[in-house]
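Suppose a colleague, Dr. K., hands you the sequence of a protein chain of 109 amino acids and asks what its three-dimensional shape might be. Before reaching for any lab equipment, you can write down a predicted structure in token form. Begin with the sequence itself:
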Amino acid sequence: MLPIPKDKKLEVYFRVEAGCLGPQGEDIVDDFCATAQKAVNEINAEFVHWNIVPRTNKQLPEMEYKLNNKKLSHEKAEKYLHLFNENLDEFEMNLNDKLALLIDDFLGH
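The predicted structure, expressed as tokens, is then:
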């Protein structure tokens, strides 16, 4: 398979709540997001571009999908992932599991 250009990759935005990092979360959420970004960059890198960012605006969803800078519905993200034999529910579960491990590592647990 030929490499997929960045504008054709699924952009996954995961917004991290500062509170999930404990009482000092506000002070460390930026550092955690930078660390998590590096850790997930290579996961499904052939068709996904990751964006792990602090959730500073509660109006925005925790997880969001875009393609060529356009928001995708859950159904359209599912169809895109299906092209790569991926299931959206499993995809999200795997990301959540990975982030939980990264939080534990980051906090020294």
